Amino acid sequence: MQPALRASDISKSFGAVHALDRARLTVERGEIHALLGANGCGKSTLCKIIAGTVGLDAGEVLIDGQLAALGSPNLAEEQGVALFYQELSLVPQLSLGENIFLGREPRDRLGFTDRAAIQRQTEALIDRVAAVAGKGFRPDARVSDLSPDQRQLAEILKVLARKPKIIIFDEATATLDRRQVEVFFDILRELKAEGVSSIFISHRMDEVFAIADRITVMRNGATVAEFAAAETDRYAVVYAMVGETGAIAASVRDHKPLEGDTRLVVKDARAARLGPVSFTAQRGEILGLGGLHGQGQKALLAGLFGAEPFQGGSVSLDGVDVTARRPADAMARRIAYVSGDRGRDSALPGRSILENTAIASLVRERRHVVPGAVFRERFTEVLAGLNTRYAGLDAPIGSLSGGNQQKVFISRWLSPAPGLLLLDDPTKGIDLGAKGDFYLLARKLADEGATVIIYSSEDSELLSLCDRVLVLNGGAITADLVGDRLTPFELTRASYGDAA
Amino acid sequence: MSRFVDLAKNPLLISSVAILALLIIGELVSPGFARGDQIVRLLTVSAILGIAAAGQNLVILGGREGIDLSIGAVISLGAVIAGNVMSGSDAAIPLAFAAACCAGFLIGLVNGLGVTYLRIPPLVMTLGMMGVIQGGLVVLSRGVPSGNAAPALMAFVNRSAFLGIPGILFVWAAIIVLMALMLKRTRFGWSIYAVGSNENAAILTGLPARRIRVLLYGLAGLFGGFTGVCVIGYTGNSFISVGDQYVLPSVIAVVIGGTSLAGGAGSYTGTALGAIALVLLQSVLTTLNLEFWGRQVIFGGTLLLLMLLYGRQARLRV
């Protein structure tokens, strides 16, 4: 019998980046298939290609043995492929039923929307999840009135209503609690019994082994291993995700021994989809936040800076309470924050380089009048120290390359030097030279007594830069890796929620 | 070539060239148009528009589609308040300024609070406020003009104070200098540009973006109230729609002066030149005996043309 899906030799580049290089994936009929890999391994891109939301450069996809035409999500859907959206795709103003049948509403004889049919069919769908749906999960309930979990369920029903042959679940269980996950798994098993195949991307190893029949592992855009779940174990899977380098237990990095005082104490910090988490950090330490995308790392950094204040818990720095309600509070305590999303969080487009660097100094030093000459001298020096290439302080920020822009944004916080530097994926999209300058700067600041906390979407960056890495999974710290245990293997394993 | 294009896109230069060209056209059509006393007259009218446009300039710089359509009604309110406070008495002039500016400032704060905290779009918020003030004025005054300007105020606006130049022009010059200093050399000025350019980034550098935006609307109201007093000084007495004619021109002056309607870029110096260019244009059109509606068409057309000219600025590379 033909497999339900066979994707072979799929290649895809985004500019100079090879997201996929001859990747392959085979999913049998009625199979639950887990697709695993570290950040940036290409698993999401592969799924998007199969679901038609991203085009492919080379390769072919067969569905039930037939060459599939996958130009658009609609085409993919016609051929029985449905994608469960990680980011919610519901229209809040419409009812549950209207959302589920949006764009494919049943019609009555006159061509009007058949509301009774929507009601009936939605009720039938809701029956499948009745055990966990909670109060008010009715066909006519407005989506804006539903709780976040219920919306996630609605998303699942929306996919089921299309009666697909293959469903791709990208992080479908991310926001579900344990009981809801059980129900979700029941649904998956029921689908399996009906002959529907599922491709399941998860960040929890427990879930993968609880539900998956087979596992495909990707690394650096290529498919590196396929396992039958019953015939393998977690180590083999993690090993495949990490590759040969993972075999080297202790790395050759020269980690500074951790000494000095505990500087930062975080207790029970909570935010939406985070925690409570508790940890400490030393003076002079570069502490990494690891794990797959979106496991609470950004929420932790934004909370420490007061950009999105914690909902509970406490933070103290050098024995002083620094729980920030807003960024200005954190800045007054010499806490600095640099985001990797420069366009959204850092750039003042249309303004000069001087304004882009000096604006934070005005706030910190409580100056009402701009000391032009002082700032010019100060920031010329700071920018030169970072090897920044720019035409002049009065040139607009947009005239710089991404790497040089990021140097301008970090220079905001260097004079005086910060006590706690928070870096949120700071080297995203910048050139290698600038990355190198960035690492040197982080190390120098730490050596001068700062504490640096960095989230990076690149594991290699954490492994080469950090003294210690906290790994987050589903908003909780699953591992505290230091010394011999700070290896690609342990990092990847903990990323999947598998504590040692 | 690119330097030429840059120069051709410099709003200060465009405004200056437009002012010169309009003066020449005016002189050609009607000899005496560009005479000294005529120019002083035109500058006086420009000053009143320019002061109103200062407030408009601030809210537009602050971004988030900032605009104050209630400015005309606030000017009317300021004029009515000032007229009633003064009732022709010179001694009450300071009080008239204070009362009109306070009223304008408070109304502006309400605009700012609505826009910032209730997230009402500025266009809707200030349009609604315009209706409220206009209605209120009709109710309070029963539609009858009341109050009149003190003689010293009229002299301040209309008659020479020094070397043939009326006092209001000195005041306007001072506002131009102060606004330039404020925008270029103070934290508040830098904060306005930062909030207008990227509010999220501004907040992440510790700026109180919401308070700044509320204050900008407050200042716009304050400038409106101040303008109202100048208007009654110019005309002698007030009627309840005296400020309406300033709404669209105050926006156009800001745009001519090169301030981006998206916020975060521009200068008041440009707006001041824009106000002069606009008054000259108005004057030339009047000299050409163009009727009111014809002038409206040209005004609106100018605004749209300028949006085309300035609107296509290179986007930031990030």
Summarize the SSE layout with pairings:
The complex is a heterodimer of chains A (about 500) and B (about 325).
Chain A: E1 5-14, E2 17-27, E3 32-36, H1 43-50, E4 58-63, E5 66-67, H2 73-78, E6 81-84, H3 96-100, H4 115-128, H5 130-133, H6 148-160, E7 166-170, H7 178-193, E8 197-201, H8 205-211, E9 214-219, E10 222-228, H9 234-242, E11 262-271, E12 274-282, E13 286-290, H10 297-305, E14 312-317, E15 320-321, H11 327-332, E16 335-339, H12 342-345, H13 353-364, H14 372-385, H15 402-411, E17 420-424, H16 432-447, E18 451-455, H17 459-465, E19 468-473, E20 476-482, H18 488-495
Parallel strand pairs in A: 3-8, 3-9, 6-7, 7-8, 13-18, 13-19, 16-17, 17-18
Antiparallel strand pairs in A: 1-2, 1-4, 4-5, 9-10, 11-12, 11-14, 14-15, 19-20
Helix pairs in contact in A: 9-18
Chain B: H1 2-8, H2 11-29, H3 36-61, H4 71-86, H5 93-116, H6 122-141, H7 151-158, E1 160-162, E2 165-166, H8 167-185, H9 187-197, H10 199-204, H11 209-235, H12 247-256, H13 268-287, H14 292-311
Antiparallel strand pairs in B: 1-2
Helix pairs in contact in B: 2-13, 3-8, 3-11, 3-12, 3-13, 4-5, 4-6, 4-11, 5-6, 5-11, 7-11, 8-9, 9-11, 12-13, 12-14
Low-confidence stretches of chain B: 313-318
Q: How is the main sheet of chain B built?
A: 2 strands, antiparallel
Rg of chain B is 19 Å
User: What's the shape of chain B?
Assistant: globular
Number of domains of chain A: 2
The helix/strand series of chain B, from N terminus to C terminus, equals HHHHHHHEEHHHHHHH
Continuous helix count of chain A: 18
Spans of chain A of at least 5 consecutive residues whose pLDDT stays below 50 are: 246-253
* Global mean pLDDT of chain B: 89
What overall geometry of chain A do the principal axes of the alpha carbons give?
A: globular
Largest sheet features of chain A: 6 strands, mixed
Write the CATH architecture name of the largest domain in chain A: 3-Layer(aba) Sandwich
Total helical elements of chain B: 14
